[in-house]
Amino acid sequence: MVSADSSSQFETCVRLYEMGEISAGTAAQRAGVPKPYFLSRLGDYGVYTFDLTEEELVHDFKNA
Fold first, then answer.
1. Residues of 42-59 as b/e, b for ≥16 C-beta within 10 angstroms?
2. Domain chopping of the chain, boundaries
């Protein structure tokens, strides 16, 4: 969905999102893609949408 011409713009938006400068919605809009698509590609850039420790994750699973 991201063309070669816009890949650097996409990556710039990913980095701004990662630094907390812009929201995921704003980043997706600036990148010209739907928010679900933007969020689904973050892992490709080493950015993860969930920032939980292993202990927090285990706790959440036990209490689900």
1. beeeeeeeeeeeeeeeee
2. 7-62
